[in-house]
TrEMBL record:
The keyword Transmembrane applies. One of its GO terms (molecular function) is branched-chain amino acid transmembrane transporter activity. Keywords: Cell membrane, Membrane, Transmembrane, Transmembrane helix. GO terms for cellular component: plasma membrane. It comes from Achromobacter pestifer. This is Branched-chain amino acid ABC transporter permease. The chain crosses the membrane at residues 9-25, 31-48, 60-78, 84-105, 112-135, 164-179, 213-231, 237-257, 262-282, 288-310. It is found in: Cell membrane. CDD domains: TM_PBP1_LivM_like. Pfam families: BPD_transp_2. It is a multi-pass membrane protein. InterPro entries: ABC_transp_permease, LivM-like. The keyword Transmembrane helix applies. The lineage of its organism: Bacteria, Pseudomonadati, Pseudomonadota, Betaproteobacteria, Burkholderiales.
Length: 327
């Protein structure tokens, strides 16, 4: 058994604990609601994590894919009576189409300009969502049915957060698996090379633009799937899902624990949402806390909390080496 497969197997007991944790803590609707929301927002963040951590770009427009999944689901479910499997497939398809268009336009740009253009895309999307009557305008789209993924005679539906939790957990588990496989794939390795040394990547026959577009196409459906499930949990979709809160939450989830940490976005999302759900200081203050946390991490701990721990571990070793050399 390889070290990689052994490390994956080591996650299984933790996954079992996480799945049953809401029930073990009392099984209240508040706990299940928090668990479902953490899973959804973590999946949302993993889509951005791939772009930031593996490609080295900061997309400020990833909320567009989250909103696309939610709006496509709401429109098809309420106006066409589409089932959850169809809305899921449509959310992925629309996210891929948007990613192709946005990617072809923006991925030729780098760093600050790329971030600025993607943010402009998000602003345009929010303006359209808030004012276009087809998307519900400022009133949004209401009356979504409950999640129903039934296959044949096998009922798979969820009418509340407790019954929705297994599906949110499954979506999170699939996302973790896909991100892990991506990082050990040729595309993942090529993305990292394009990020760290574009010239070396080109010398090795890698087309940076093509790789960047492929990674963008991989990341967008992940975030869109989070929007798909969020629409069913909330039973209501409006332009507020394009607010900067979701963008800041995604960015904080990516950088708080540390980049390229498989469980990093999940742990960071859990920390933020547990504080907001159970130790809230009030809506506006919570947003200030979230924004301040992102500023502090970027300013003082750019490698995240894992980087801070690694630095502390290195200090005793460095001091020991210095003492030995001084003898």
């Amino acid at each position: 058994m390889t070290t990689l497969s052994a490390s994956r197997l080591a996650l299984l007991p933790g996954a079992v604990v996480v799945f049953f944790l809401p029930a073990w803590l009392g099984g209240s609707q508040a706990l299940y609601s928090a668990a479902v929301l953490i899973a959804i927002m973590a999946v949302m963040a993993y889509g951005l994590d791939v772009i930031v951590s593996d490609l080295g770009e900061v997309s400020l427009g990833h909320t567009v894919f989250f909103a696309a999944g939610a709006y496509v689901t709401a429109l098809l479910a309420t106006r066409a009576g589409a089932g959850a499997w169809l809305t899921l497939a449509a959310s992925i398809a629309v996210a891929l189409a948007l990613a192709a268009v946005i990617g072809l336009i923006t991925l030729r740009l780098r760093e600050f300009v790329f971030s600025l253009v993607t943010y402009a895309v998000a602003v345009v999307a929010m303006t359209l969502a808030a004012n276009w009557t087809f998307l519900g305008g400022s009133d949004g789209i209401r009356g979504l049915p409950t999640l129903d993924l039934s296959i044949g005679g096998w009922p798979l539906n969820a009418g509340n957060d407790q019954t929705l939790w297994p599906y949110a957990f499954a979506l999170l588990a699939i996302t973790l698996y896909l991100v892990d496989r991506f990082r050990h794939s040729r595309l993942g390795q090529a993305a990292l090379m394009v990020h760290l040394n574009p010239r070396l990547a080109t010398m090795n026959g890698i087309d940076p633009l093509r790789v960047r577009l492929q990674v963008f196409l991989f990341s967008a459906p992940i975030t869109a799937c989070a929007g798909w499930l969020y629409a069913y949990q909330r039973a209501y979709v409006s332009a507020d899902i394009l607010e900067t809160y979701f963008l800041i939450l995604m960015l904080t989830a990516v950088v708080l624990i540390g980049r390229r940490q498989l469980l990093g976005p999940l742990l960071a999302t859990a920390l933020v949402l547990i504080q907001e759900k159970f130790f809230s200081f009030g809506g506006y203050i919570d947003k200030i806390v979230l924004g301040s946390l992102l500023i502090l991490v970027l300013a003082f701990f750019p490698q995240g909390l894992m980087g801070l721990l690694a630095t502390r571990r290195k200090r005793p070793k460095a001091m020991a080496t210095t003492l030995e050399n001084s003898k």
